[in-house]
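Field: sequence (string)
Field: structure_tokens (string)

Example rows 1 and 2, in order.
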Amino acid sequence: MSKWSLYVFDVLAIALVTFIGFLFHGAMDASVLPRFFLTFIPLTISWLLIAPWFGLFQREVTSNPKQLWRPALAVLFAAPLAALARAIILNTVVLPIFANVLIATSALGMVVWRGIYFLLNRKGREAR
């Protein structure tokens, strides 16, 4: 898999985690799309701004399972930034519970996805 696939699948992982969050709250009709995007877009932008600072697109990091802590740490910075951006857009305050849940679920989703990425790449390297 290429470096660009990391970007694409990171965004898809964020979308999936956000979608599951809305499912958890029982929100499944088209009327939730604006709220979905008010969470998804700030989190995606925050992730894409923060992740490179943690080396999350470097081969040395993505090919080492001992580095799977890095996506969780990056989310620890990206999710609060996203929650703040969302609050500013909505002209409201950041709810601590929302920010903490966003951190926890996004970190879990990103670590799971990056673990899958590592396994797929390892199998691809072994097949060569």
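Row 2 begins here:
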Amino acid sequence: MALLEWRDEFATGIPSIDYEHRNLIGLINDLHTRAMRDPDKGPVEDTLGDIHANISAHFALEEKVMRDLDYPQYDSHKAEHEALLDDIRAIMDKVHADREFDYRTSLADCLRDWFGDHFKGADSRLHRQTGH
């Protein structure tokens, strides 16, 4: 079962951003499937690294689009991005340091809730602002 499903309400109307959102959902679902099947932290750590790198690159694109559009809520949107990256980095550090990692109550909840809220909130406002 997928942790996150793409919904039309997640769309920003900006093709490059929506494409990357779909890819990020795929990576998160891959991590979820892997972690549920195999609790070994090695593959989880590798996939977490991939997710962190892809999210960082995605946020750079999204922030460039916002700067190009002179988006008025740029600072608060960027702050949300930085907070998520900090949260993922903290989880990566915890996974690396601890032998036991409860995936279900930490990373899964964090990513599902954050992406759902961010897509419906900050990214939805970006969509309305740009008129896409």
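free_text_note (row 2): The radius of gyration is 15 Å.
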